[in-house]
Amino acid sequence: MKYTQGKYLILKKTAVAREIYSFIIKCPEIADIASAGQFVHIRAGNFTLRRPISICGIDRNKGTIRIVFEVRGEGTAEISRLNEGSFIDMLAPLGHGFTINRFKKVVLIGGGIGTPPMLPLAEIYGEKAVVISGFRSADAVILQDDFKKTGAKTILCTDDGSLGIHGFVTRPFTELAEKGGIDAVYACGPMPMLKGIAEICKKYNIFCEVSLEERMACGIGACLGCACRTLRNDEEYFAHVCKDGPVFNAGEVIW
Ligand SMILES: Cc1cc2nc3c(=O)[nH]c(=O)nc-3n(C[C@H](O)[C@H](O)[C@H](O)COP(=O)(O)OP(=O)(O)OC[C@H]3O[C@@H](n4cnc5c(N)ncnc54)[C@H](O)[C@@H]3O)c2cc1C
Question: 169 alpha carbon to ligand 1 midpoint, in Å?
Fold first, then answer.
């Protein structure tokens, strides 16, 4: 795993929803080697432990990456106080990303703040992708214009029906799976959502990768902070989300 650590310039900061921020960061050496599904580990103020945030955009020509994150606690609040023109301390790119293949039709499913890592995939697959995004309510919806710009078809769901389809992402996804023709599914979001998607993919025999979120410490596989139960050669194996993941084949995860 090749990664680098440094302080990088924040070129652009935008508030994309309440307590959700987008940063575009100048970091050519990271942009050069980063891939969809990997993450950056950010130093937050004086906290010892860095905070992991997925890569939401990679522009190799401009030497930038994008991150989109929600303020959840003290660490992310500290990061959100950084402004354009200041420097962000990152260890990146980390983790094992999504398998990119010559699939003809893929479905990208993001739940809430699990939506950002789906954007680099939509940029790769364009019209071959259907993006299903789910949010609590209309005021939490993010990135829909960005997904549309990629040429992907978008389906939006909200839990309370305030925008798009009323209900969980699993409903429109089940309809798509029943119709057939899907080569691969990529998903990131809350565990119950991922479990539901993994079950549907198993039923219809569709290749499925999920990006798991686990509290983590070092980010490089040196500590045991982010262990998760998986199956390897039919045997239980405690994988590290930071190094073996965050992306896993859905069939390997013990749900
Ligand atoms: C690989 C990976 C990629 C991630 N990508 C993104 C992203 O693109 N955008 C984004 O907004 N967030 C992302 N997260 C979650 C983000 O790392 C946490 O929200 C953050 O670490 C919380 O730190 P805090 O100090 O603000 O909150 P804390 O005070 O530590 O915790 C506040 C709340 O957040 C929850 N939390 C803390 N750490 C995690 C975690 N690692 N995963 C899930 N919940 C957590 C706690 O249960 C608690 O309820 C990602 C996590 C991982 C592991």
Answer: 21
